[in-house]
Amino acid sequence: MRTTGDQQLLKRINRSVLLRLIRSQPGLSRARLAQQSGLTKSTVSALVRELLDEQWLNEASAPVAADGMGRPSTPVRLNEDVRVLIGVEIAVEYLRMVCVSLTGVVISQSEVPLESTEPARVCVQAARLVQGQCDGLQMKNLLLSGVGVCLPGAIDDDSGVVRFAPNLGWRDVPFLDMISSAFGDAGVPTTSIHLQNDADAAALSEYEFTANEGKDPLIFINCDVGVGAGIVLNDRLFSGAFGLAGEIGHTIMQIDGLLCSCGRRGCAETFIGSRVLGTSAAMQRAGQYLGVLVQNLDVLFNPRTVILGGKSCIDNPSLIDDANQTLATYAELGGVPISTLRAARYGLLAAAVGAAALTLHRFLRPLSPGSIQRVG
Ligand SMILES: [Zn+2]
Prior knowledge:
The protein is α/β, with parallel strands linked by helices.
């Protein structure tokens, strides 16, 4: 029978439903999977067979006692020992790469200075780095499931075009196409390639690789020279009409304040950006303004989880303490529950790990835009 495009999509959706169930409840049996997914037992059986053959899953070597659903069953789990993801962070001064398991365990990491900010040269350098990693994976019999790339800029999710990356000096660069070709030229094995803004990617490092449910809406605030946020809302990244949502460093906190890098005055960046954190008094003030910023986000999104990351927060935990204190004061005055901020789980690796998480995030959401399946 000829399989049509719609049937292929339906199959991908059904596979993703099963993978998400198995990820949140490792060891489910096929019978339980059918019960919880609403799919027929024969569909579950066929899809699980396929996922086992492709090494997304593995199963116990022998059936275990019945779990209240009849005959003994064989539990299935994500195949963490075989399938891996690669994440690449392109920053203004360096390239950082990580290789992680399907559950977010960092297997390897590396960082090299960025040789040039010219897009074509960045592609060649990143491709060389990824190709070297792929050789290592082959020797360990690990299977690559996707490469995610992130950078500091606004990205059009549908086309993979970097609309605007001021710190790299880029405007309207078709970067996903370019890096995909560079991977081909460097001999990177065929795989799916994804592109995302760095703060958005960092949000996914927490969203995809933190086990507990109920973390949505999630906001990841990246504090460095600039201040940006990645927002996960209703199980999707919220990037806005032009990929600019979350540029919270440019929310105005003071009328006629200091001049900001963006041309406006009194932006959050002029209080919190790393360039103004020279003294302990400035640091304390930055913590308070960070608390104000989170308070304002709290009113807008009522998030369940707010994470603070980026070099400023990782190097200066007092920033997080001061922000928490400020936030608690507002909560008390407003008579609302106190939200708690915490530091990024992956520290300075958050964006790179998040880029790797992006590949899984999109694989598990077949209707999401923005990936290239490169034909090798
Ligand atoms: Zn600004």
